[in-house]
Amino acid sequence: MPETNMTQQHETAPLFSVVAPVYGVEQYLDTCVASILGQSFDDFELILVDDGSPDDCPAKCDRWAAKDTRVRVIHQTNKGLSGARNTGLDAARGEFVLFVDSDDAIENDLLELCAHAIHMDSTVDVVYFGYTVPGRARKYALPANLTDHANHRRDVLWNIVRGVIPSHAWQFVAQRSLYQGITFPVGRVAEDVAVTYRVISRANKVYALPDCLYRYQVRSDSIIGRSQEKQLSYYKDEVTSFREMRAAFHDDRELLIAADINMLDHLFAHYIYANDRAVARSVAALISDESKSLRNDGVPLTYRCKMVLLDAGVLGAYSAIRNIVKSIIKGK
Known about the structure:
Blueprint (H helix, E strand, L loop, with lengths): L5 E2 L8 E7 L3 H12 L6 E7 L6 H11 L3 E5 L4 H12 L4 E4 L5 E2 L3 H11 L3 E9 L6 E2 L8 E4 H10 L9 E4 L15 H12 L2 E11 L12 H21 L4 H20 L4 H15 L9 H12 L2 H17 L1
Parallel strand pairs: 2-3, 2-5, 3-4, 7-11
Antiparallel strand pairs: 1-4, 5-10, 6-11, 7-8, 7-10, 9-11
Protein name: Glycosyl transferase CpsJ
Enzyme class: transferase
InterPro entries: Glyco_trans_2-like, Nucleotide-diphossugar_trans
């Protein structure tokens, strides 16, 4: 890769490779890197992939590498989040990989707790954890029935495919070999949906920690705040990822239905919260198109009713009234 300039090399392979794509995050980068380098467990390398960032991030990355030999920096022309993750994954030498978005941060015992889970049971090749969002009181912990023990991949996979556990690529550490032949789709968003289930499908055992160890920074440029064109592009890419997921499980009725329901949950939410009529109409068309290929014998009646309301053009009004009634009941 001629455009790549890598600084600092470990002599021996570490247990963990932490991969952090970097682009346009100069106000967050130092906090992110400090949280990683401040880990209570130090057998890791940090790979900062400068994805052609136009701000001070490239220089910041080099300064961190000059201060700490665990930091390796790759400078490349812009390839997007997926391309940067792929670059970091290719360069990783650790037995396990953790992705961290460079506007986020991690708790200082994340790697230590993951290492403990791995060393307790040699069959564990993925460790999951919960997350928090700065400014929100809620903690996004994993389902209690999964935590504090090793789970068969099927139990965790169902929760991911159904959407009970989000498809965040940064919410787990995984043995690097599980990514063999898997790449994040370049040129698409909703890339986590396209990859996470494939990695977990290959796992042997998945340990689920009860702790919330990742700090997810929700930025103001959320999908709702984007242009009409970018919103629709995101939704279409998301549907593409769900189509791939459903194709992967075409012989597994339970997982196929779970994927159908998860996709409908996402699309109905996008429709209801659309702040533009044209976007809402386009999402409605996506729902109509995708519903034709659903396993209707397994999709709950509530979803089929929602599709009827959507066709009648009253789903948004129904949802608004339902939310008002819920808030009144909760207030009693």
